[in-house]
Write a structure and sequence with these properties.
This protein has a domain of 39 residues. The protein has no helices and 3 strands. The protein has a 3-stranded antiparallel β-sheet with strand order 1-2-3, with no helix packed on it. The N and C termini lie far apart (45 Å).
């Protein structure tokens, strides 16, 4: 019998997702949903460590 290793308690594997990207003048938001529209992951550039005017650049 093989043991299945898990990275964490709340990790979920998904195959198909839809990435919704909202780029404003001040920040960029990324929201990944499944086919039904349930949010799987969301983040913003400000939460990743970019601050000030660097948040609105294409490199962030």
């Amino acid at each position: 019998m093989k043991k299945v290793k898990t990275v964490g308690k709340n990790t979920k594997k998904f195959i198909t997702g839809i990435a919704h990207i909202r780029a404003t003048f001040n920040n960029t938001f990324v929201n990944v949903t499944d086919v039904c529209g349930n949010t799987l992951y969301q983040t913003s550039v400000g939460a990743c460590g970019f601050s000030g005017s660097r948040k609105s650049t294409p490199y962030a």
